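Subgroup meeting minutes
Present: P.N., E.W., G.H.
Scribe: E.W.

1. P.N. recapped why we're keeping a running log of single-chain structure predictions: easier to compare across weeks, and new members can see raw inputs and outputs side by side.
2. G.H. added today's entry (278 aa).
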Amino acid sequence: MPFPLACALVFGSVLLASLAAVEGLAGVWERARGRYVNAAEESLDAAWLTWPARRVLGAGIASAFVLGGACALAHPAWAPAGAGVGLLLPLGALWTLARRRAERARAALPEALEAISRSLRAGSALPQAVSRAAGSVAGPMGRELALVSRELGLGVPLEEALSHWHERVGDADLALAVEGIRLAQEVGGTLSETLQNLVVTVRERRRAQARLNALTAQGRMQAWVVGLLPFGLAGFLAWMDPEGMAEFLRRPAGVSLVALAAILQAVGIAWIRWIVRP
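Output recorded in log:
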């Protein structure tokens, strides 16, 4: 085979392989980007924030560069882990905000049910009672009730509006309340008394949950102490013998051992917390 033809074939093969690799990487990037944006949108909706999801992606990429670069300065092998943590950092912050909002909404559930019950005893229909309760209950639960009232005003069926309410808050006590309202609407009876009984039930359940949390608090604290103790010991050794610790981290075996220890510690903490979970 002539040399120019062989060079052309090699060049063409390399070019096609490069294009295929670029196209494959582009597909992987698009799928990862879509999943990240979807997760960001879900977290933003749960936290009731109106930020664009692409801005969250930009913040994740920026934090990945910052943390990855900082870890690379300490040790090049730590750069991928730092970049991964930085990429997930905005999602973690959004998830924390959404979880706190949901906890505040769950905490106000008895007050919301009691407000609806009072309005029903005063002679209001259920949509008007929900609207009045939305004005008297502060915080996230008040906004949730306002959204339920708005859906009912737009003609959304009661069962569907209550299902949306439960999906947004995601609380077992709220599921019990929604089911009680449905049964009272279908079977009949005094809805205000049903809601008042639900308020008593929810408060008793939460008092029992608080007692259970107090009983398992020591076990959860022990999990954190045992989990953080090796890292505290590593910091103490680095302070006492920085040269020895630096030599240990410069070796691939040392980095591998640290990574394995971190993974085992995370598994151990999760296992202990699962055992002592309330």
